Amino acid sequence: MILAGGGSTRMGRAKAGLRLGRCTLLGHARALAAELGLPCRVQTQDDTPSQGPLGGVATALRRAQVERVLFLGCDMPFLTADFTRRILAVEAESVFASVKGTVGFPFVLSPVVLPKVEVQLKTGRRSLQRLATRMRARRIRVLATEAAQLQNLNTPADLAAARKTVACVGVGF
């Protein structure tokens, strides 16, 4: 599931359609799912709008017809299949990437955790950190050599820096 329905307030416009190299940001996430051999759905509207990523997570879990859902953000174009496979390899109801103790995308959740997500939404606590703690999620430590691929593009400055990186390194984007 690619979450692509956020407000993008820091970016000032929807991120999914922004271009980085030859693809849109959404296109990079779709390409990753294809490389992993996974069916891909894009979540652009939430059942409970204005709830941040947790609203999209709840919506996706309500509609899931699989045992586990991989969640990708549409704003992480450098994420690799190798790292994502590490997350997918862990058989647990909840698995998060963790950088210095902070969790984030990508992550995997089983629909059985939906009640915990819904309780958290009802209490107004939209934090993925709190959710991971509450669920006692498995955390996959991100190695220093992997950290750059977890960069998400939240601001025009982030996007500009990513474009320079892609241009300088000649990445085949």
Molecular structure report:
Helices cover 36% and strands 18% of the residues. The strands form two sheets. It has a six-stranded mixed β-sheet with strand order 4-1-5-7-6-8, with helices on both faces. The chain has a two-stranded antiparallel sheet with strand order 2-3. The model has no long low-confidence stretch (mean pLDDT 89). By secondary structure, it is an alpha/beta fold. It starts with a strand and ends with a helix. The chain has six helices and eight strands, in the order βββαβαβαββααβα. It is globular and about 45 Å long.
- Give the radius of gyration: 15 Å
Order of helices and strands: EEEHEHEHEEHHEH
For the biggest sheet, the summary is: 6 strands, mixed
Q: How many DSSP-defined strands? A: 8
The portion of residues assigned to helices is 25-40%
Measured distance between first and last alpha carbons: 21 Å
Give the strand order of the largest sheet, numbering strands 1, 2, ... along the chain. 4-1-5-7-6-8
Supply the number of helical segments.
Answer: 6
Shape: globular
Structural class call reads: alpha/beta
What integer is the average pLDDT?
89
Contiguous low-pLDDT stretches (5 residues minimum) are none
The proportion of residues in beta strands is 15-25%
Topology:
Elements: E1 2-3, E2 19-20, E3 23-24, H1 25-36, E4 42-43, H2 53-63, E5 69-73, H3 81-89, E6 94-99, E7 102-109, H4 114-122, H5 128-135, E8 138-141, H6 156-169
Parallel strand pairs: 1-4, 1-5, 6-8
Antiparallel strand pairs: 2-3, 5-7, 6-7
